[in-house]
Write a structure and sequence with these properties.
Glutaredoxin, 6 helices, 14 strands, 5-stranded mixed β-sheet, about 325 residues
Length: about 325
Amino acid sequence: MLKPCSEFSKLLEENPIGTAPIWNQCIVIELPHPWSAKIEESKYFDSSIFAYINKLNLSGRSIRLQCILPDQEYSKPNMRRVMLFSKNSKSTMSTTRTEYLIPERSLKDLCVFLLTENQQEKKYSEYKQHNDSIRDILVCTHGNRDRCCGSIAAPLFKNLRNQYPKPANESKYVRFWRTSHTGGHRFAPTIIDLPQARYWAYMDETSIASILEKHEPITSLDENYRGCALLTSVEEQNVEKKLLFEMGWKWIDMKKQISTVESITKNDHQIISAFYEEPHLTSIHHVEFLVQHTKSIPTMNCMKSGNKGLNKKYQVIKNPGSS
């Protein structure tokens, strides 16, 4: 009997690190149902927006599209929310948020405006939202794309919306959205944590509470972390996880930079360098790692026979001379 891909992935004990999609910008657009398997083919999605994003990506940009369902609490009739998360040039591990709540008729123009570097800030200033302190958790419930996301993640989303109502103190406000395919549906339920740009797998109420409230050691989430989208490779995502899990939750707020020093194609090895500064300290730490390919795990098609591809796994070794 054919199994759902998420069940098969757990049976293989497939650790999801290194499977987070990589991007420099992520544009998030409210889109009403119905959704098609390919979100850009949905009834109410303007295909010219997708064409424009593709054009920019072909020119060298790295932009990801996510759509979210309008929400009874967050959304407004005849208006569309658009959020753009852009990699901060001063740090590889943070983003800046730009958010608008725009009339539907202006959606395409706003998206082009946001993704064009020569922006005219005043053009849509009346629709700009000042939500820098808000955290957005995008839960993939894209059932038309994958059965696992629809059947497993939809009930989780409903429970989360009930567990985390809008607080009186909006500086700690967390919004939960139903989102389109996040990649890696074999890890359902999957979430994207914005503005951190972190991807998580096999989520449930307990693991999400740990991420939001940091009340458990982060090492308890070893089988859940997919990686940060703001890095440039699977190997860098593996290194970042090692540092995150060694440092604990404080790593998230550190100033840091991770980059590839050398790539050795013959042996599928890479040397990765990391610089970081602990909060309230002026000393900068520099660590180098050797990242070695160890094995490849087959990934199964959901409810279909045959393998979809291979997921490479790596060993991360710290250079003894690093400080």
